[in-house]
Design a protein that fits this description.
Layout: E1 2-5, E2 19-24, E3 30-35, H1 41-48, E4 51-55, E5 59-64, E6 78-83, E7 91-92, E8 96-102, E9 110-113, E10 118-119, E11 129-136, E12 143-145, E13 151-154, E14 168-177, E15 184-194, E16 202-205, E17 208-212, E18 216-221, E19 227-228, E20 238-239, E21 248-254, E22 261-263, E23 270-272, E24 285-294, E25 297-310, H2 340-378, H3 383-388, H4 399-406
Parallel strand pairs: 8-15, 18-25
Antiparallel strand pairs: 1-6, 2-5, 3-6, 4-5, 7-10, 9-13, 11-14, 12-13, 14-15, 16-17, 16-20, 19-23, 21-24, 22-23, 24-25
Length: 419
Amino acid sequence: MFLFAVSLVTVFCFQSGTTVMKGTKDPGDRVSLDLRSGLTSALGNELQYSFKLTVSTTDFTITNTKVIDLEGLKKNLPVIAVDAVDEYPPTFTDKIYRINIPENTNIGSTVFHISKYVSDEDVTTGQQFSYSIQETGTSTPYFLCNPGSGDITLLKALEYDGHNPLRRFNIILKVEETDGNFFDGSSMLVVTVTNVEDVPPYFVYPNCPPPCMAPLYAAITTLTYRGTITLNPYNFRSGDSEGFGTNRLYFISQGNNYNMFTVDQTSGVLSQTKSVNGVNASESEFRLIVKVQKENHPDLSAIAVVVIRVKERLQNATTFGSYSTINQGVTPTNAESESGPNLIIPLIIMSLIAIAASVAFILMFFMYKRKLNNAIGSDKPKQSEMVNGTAGSSDLPNNNTLNTVFSSKPPTWDTLPSA
């Protein structure tokens, strides 16, 4: 409803038929001429017939019908009352909205306010709207809308990395009047998930897909060695599944009790700055925990285990994991070592000797069995003698002889007969 107060001071000298006010309106709007409260009955009657309201479809005109005597009217003025009709639906200011939210946004955070982008051309006051959303392309909802305020909050954790992450959401926005006219409007909200550096780096290690958890490296030093340490299977390498290009730094986080070792933060090269004898260390091996982390992100890191054994004390070294023998070919510069290839050759030779011994044992066993069969066969009577009945009991081996033959223990290397 519009209220217009018209001062009559500007029209008291006008003659009858003078236009006091002209205005426009929307089709369907009602315009009426009313009097301000507080007028006496006599003054009200006088003013009631002093103005004429003419209304058309899109405009209205107020004219005076006679010269108005303002004596006694004082500040009592006529008022025009316009009653508005709810004829327009609520609308969005744009057809589509786009926002970016980081993948680490907390659940429950408000990401969008629908009410800020809704307007209604109707001029009625106290309009009530109901808001709702509809996600497309998702099996489970990630967002929640408050129907009263129009606030959209995050319902489920987002993920930019990982397996088949959802990085974009299309959400239909809806607004509806609640006064019974069922006017509504809709728009689209496109939510893009942005990447956040939240994945730690990893050590590159053979036959261990990233991220490889605490891989094991081995090396050998001597009592007097100082210099670069060569690691097996190879020196530190690291990777990063995210594409931010952040520098990766290396640190020795545990085990460097004598401060014998250092690692270059940028390259990851491990060095021994003090000899074992120089620090009077009695250990036969040293175990270090080396960490690689993203620069300015100490919480994003990975670790590796390094075992460095002292060559002169290998007999005292304990076994660890798959490195039960020193066969890694790990050699610090200028230090002696027992390399992998040098140990593989003796192992091959020993295997061939074992195979040859097995073959010889089998051959000797068959030869022994053949001799035994021949010895038994010579004591049997000939078939012709059996047929003619000439075979005597003295020609057959007695029970004692058979028992002796078949109760013999299995032959050994010392008792096998010669060929």
